[in-house]
User: Fold these one by one.
Assistant:
Number 1:
Amino acid sequence: MKREIILTQDGSTSIFLPELNETYHSKFGAIQEARHVFIKNGLSLLNDKSVSILEIGFGTGLNAFITFLEAQKSFQTIDYVGVEAFPVETEIINQLNYVSELEAEAFESVFKEMHLSNWEIENEITTHFKLTKRNQKIEEISDSNQYNLIYFDAFGFTVQPELWNDGIFEKMYKALKSNGILVTYACRTSIKKAMLKAGFQVEKLPGAPGKREMLRAVKGADF
């Protein structure tokens, strides 16, 4: 499938799929969306010094890289698992401007290593950040009681509705530890209902710039 580099409104790049008319990130800003959805409303809530994260849709590696940068500030150790059915080609990755836009030139080698590291094994990117990339479809996930946090960043409901049903969220519920959190940019009534049916407690939150709302779901905890 053809991938094109686009510039989003906050100056950061993303990928556009003409065949699906779908982008990997919000056109209003890839970096600001990642920070708002996954860091502000996800990672920042966890005070644990050791955090395990499952990302649904590893894609460009933006969420993983921003998580690494945030963990540098909070002194957290991250065990990060990124699931991706269709890995992005190196020539496309090399055109992304996340390192410069995040003013993270000191960690450029980390971003490169995230993409150059082997799939299906645990890679020690740094002493405080381990990355496992799995070339796997979401439907094939069978993890149990393993993660503190899930970044649910699959393609949108209009493109892949089969990734937003109660069966998928039952898998996510099972994969989380008690009190685990799932965050996603999406906020559609059918998605919220699927999360509730899977057993989650669900909250609507203000969305990233350009989007009205997003969802956060918790396994076995009250807000």
Number 2:
Amino acid sequence: MISPEGAHWADLFDSLGLEYERSFTGKRQAQIDAVAELMCRLAPGARVLDVGCASGRPTTEQLCAGGMDVTGMDVSPVMLEHARRQVPQARFVLADLFVFDDIEALDALGVHDAAVCLFCLVNLPGPRFVDGLRRLAALTRPGGTLLVAVPEIQGTEEVRFIERTYRPARCLSEDLHRYARQAGLEVERVETRTEPAPDGQAEPGTILFLWARNPES
């Protein structure tokens, strides 16, 4: 089941297809470094959930290459077709993070040692962002790691993204700290990194990486 919001994003990413992946080729080093750090913390074969996996590259592919047991989750059927072809070692599910409202749905997806959500919780108002973090925690074992990445947004001016214009919601480091605490997570740190701009965007972007843990109790 896909929410109306998820359906909107599914339509967008269905239309982008591999254009999305190509626009970031060679421009995801901060993301790759963060995933490499995550794998250093995990045992071989650890279960990792990649929420908003898109075409499977680079993150799902990197996790599989590192010996993780990976499930990729996305709302876009077209992206999942590419992901299954490009990263056959992983399993992929068509699912919406914001539709998992009952314990049976959560049990069907399973509990993971870590969850990564890179550039999926974007442009959400505070309460919705907090809800997303709580849902990620529900899919992660007690003591498990959550790695979340979002662009740093100073204000609400219009921005360009792959030749599309939109008005994003503010998201600063202090916002991420606050959202994570409100979601009941143990915050380790929020790291700020700069990455080259994707194709169709003029300026390089500042990326915020939230490192947090699902509390043991």
